[in-house]
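Kindly inspect both lines:
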Amino acid sequence: MRLLRPCSLLAALPTLAVAQAAPRPLPAPTATFDEPFSQVASVRELANGKVIVTDGRDKTVSMIDFASGAQVKIGREGSGPGEFGLPARLFAAPGDTTLLFDPLNTRYLVIGPDAKPKSTFMIEQPVQGGQGGFRVGGMAMARTADARGRLYMEGAGISIGADGRPTSADSTVLTRYDRGSKRTDTLAWIHLPKNNAQVSGGQNNMNIRIGGSNPLAARDEWAVFPDGRVAIVRAADYHVDWVLPNGERRASAPIRFAPVRMTDADKREEEVLRNRARSNQMMVTMSQGPNGVQRSAQMGPGPNAPPLEPLTDWPAVKPPFRPGVASVWARPNGDLWVRRTEPAGAKGTLYDVIDASGKVAYQVRIPDGFNLVGFGNGTIYTTKADEDDLLYLQRHPAGEGRLVGDATRR
């Protein structure tokens, strides 16, 4: 097994500074859905322009129509046929079929083009590689899918020691699962930060927490295009490794960037973001009892939870792009959007738009209060929060369009 060797961002500081053209503004929304959501976990645009949306906080799945304002509920909460325990990510499948990942029931719900649940399935075979492979509650968790409905996932970064005890690993495997053949292919290795997994307790009462490392700890991120092309953004020197549909592998040249040093202002800003993000973090708890595996889920830390303890392991320099599942997006037209890190006080959110050659074609700045949640065919989807933190789903044209500053405020 090959482990990735991280390099020091500090060592590269003298050679990376570069001037960058002014970012393009995000086009103003052409449509806003009138009914708010508590949390938009995932969106999936259908061929007819309608959109399926999951709300993890309210535990709802719905299909919305921007043109008519109609909203149709899909399925219901439960564990029976056509039901879901906790709606999470949505994945595209052929023929406008949609796959809904349900971590609480450890399965996927298949939704037909008519917005009705059809069936469920589980990924029965273990994830290959990943230093022993890893599944949560017997369920391999996918992150995204291609147009053929093949699911892509990464291991949990767990290594099993000689004593049989799991420990944090510094890399994990990226795999692709084909439901038709039930075959899992290993595509690449992903570098993880130290302490990406924390293990506590003994053999009969062991707690494993995936994630939870410093939010600015550098790690590789990845995304998948509809044709099955995989883009892996490497944190060590900010370049893109491509895994093409035919299996060919290519590495783009490093992208020059101006490193951002961590200041006290950056640390204070990040602590605010850490505590704010807790309300949208999902915790799934699984325990083995006399009646089998028991599962429960909770969104956020609860109303009386104290603030998080401040971190002390901040890096001296921010990574070139922000770690996180929602930091790298594969737009259907072939562009790769990567969320950059910036100094404290920066307005909005900055994305590099990387073309198929691995070069930054241009940058886009999304204004404060807007959050990127997905792409469609020539469209961009964001949410905008009101004063009560309710979220309104917005559709933007993918062209340059007009400035967002005149968008209607709620």
The first strand starts at residue 24 and ends at 25. The two ends are 53 Å apart (CA to CA).
